[in-house]
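Proteins fold reproducibly. Consider a sample protein:
=====
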Amino acid sequence: MPALRINCDNKIPLARGMGSSAAAIAGGLVAANSLCSQEYTVSDLLEMAATIEGHPDNVAAAVLGGMRLVIMDEGSRLYTVPVNVPPELHAVVFVPQVRISTEDARSVLPEKVAMLDAVHNMGRVGLLVAAMATNHPEYLAVATQDRIHQPYRQPLFPAMKVIFQAALDAGAMGVFLSGSGSTVLALTKGREMTVAYEMAEAARQANVEGNVSVTQPTLLGAHLIEQG
């Protein structure tokens, strides 16, 4: 292998529930595979990424792009399918300055959940996938409701609920914690700037510093960019 220099410019904030480690892993594997003359398939890269990350959800989206439904069976085999995202849907993300480590975010979760809460979330997972696939964003406010992790993580980020409500009141289609937090992600179909302003204003009134951005899902996963 010839001598080389590696520069990593990861603009995804750390410890904010935005998959920064998955993005770094995906980028590193794609770059390494290029140096190995594309010896490994995309499926190989996904399996390696899931092994390094410890779970497949973030790396599936990072490697393959788009919204992905992914599970791992008892034999550690991965199953993933793309989920359509309506093209007019945007994501407004409020990224607080406060960090929440994955370890801390996991430590507050209960080992067992009530049957009613499990049923509540399972139904909304189905509704979320169906709403995306059939272009019914009006169902997202209900589909993004949660009883299994957000209520337990509320004490780690007390302003969560007021930012949620501000986003919905401003016209967001749905809102939730990104990953384990502390980032709040609102899905919008129009009114992006209004939602962004109201989320930032709600955070300001709660004495929470942070930045808000408007972005859009992409079907493009980790890939090479040729430079002349």
